[in-house]
């Protein structure tokens, strides 16, 4: 385990097995539809790479660069679109993937943008969802794990752009955050 990690919350094997289950549901819903997977940078990169290899459907794949945390521990409340890439989504069924559903602002803002770009339908998929009340997106269409309202890192999730490469989801030691 990495020396900065207090506790592993979800280990590699558990993640791997859960992704197979999520993929089966996604296949059942998207089969026969023109599919585009849209993953949010940077947090969803490990998740999407592992998930879509279990989805043997024809699909296009896009990455969207957005930011709402700006490196810290709390959502800034503002979703920034960091690039101008606007794929034509007319008639497409979008699977929108992110690492974690927290306040839900990101999923809400991106879903709206994708629909404005012509998407026929947008289904949301997250590895993690914090167990908190939300006024925005209540829950994703596909959720890997519901977790307590704690700050987590690993498997794509970062603190100040570190720890994304950890193969598990974990909680940082307090002294790492306060230092
Ligand atoms: P909202 O609040 O828009 O947040 O649902 C989604 C984005 O916020 C980031 N986020 C986290 N990043 N550990 C992280 O490393 C966390 O516990 C955490 N909670 C939210 C993440 O980038 C996500 O896309």
From TrEMBL:
Entry keywords, A to Z: Cytoplasm, Glycosyltransferase, Magnesium, Metal-binding, Nucleotide-binding, Purine salvage, Transferase
- Domain (Phosphoribosyltransferase) spans 22-160
Domain of life from the UniProt record: Bacteria
Catalyses which reaction(s): GMP + diphosphate = guanine + 5-phospho-alpha-D-ribose 1-diphosphate; IMP + diphosphate = hypoxanthine + 5-phospho-alpha-D-ribose 1-diphosphate
Q: Which GO terms describe its molecular function?
A: guanine phosphoribosyltransferase activity; hypoxanthine phosphoribosyltransferase activity; magnesium ion binding; nucleotide binding
Q: In which pathway does it act?
A: Purine metabolism; IMP biosynthesis via salvage pathway; IMP from hypoxanthine: step 1/1
Question: Which cofactors go with this protein?
Answer: Mg(2+)
Output this protein's name: Hypoxanthine phosphoribosyltransferase
Name any one Pfam family assigned in the record. Pribosyltran
Enzyme class, first EC level, given as a word: transferase
Give the EC number(s) under which this enzyme is classified. Answer: 2.4.2.8
- InterPro entries in alphabetical order: HGPRT, Hxn_phspho_trans, PRTase-like, PRTase_dom
Similarity-based family: Belongs to the purine/pyrimidine phosphoribosyltransferase family.
Localisation: Cytoplasm
Q: Which GO terms describe its cellular component?
A: cytosol
Gene Ontology biological-process annotations: GMP salvage; guanine salvage; hypoxanthine metabolic process; IMP salvage; purine ribonucleoside salvage
- Per the annotation, which location comes first and is thus the protein's main one? cytoplasm
SUPFAM superfamilies tied to this protein: PRTase-like
Which positions make up the signal peptide? none
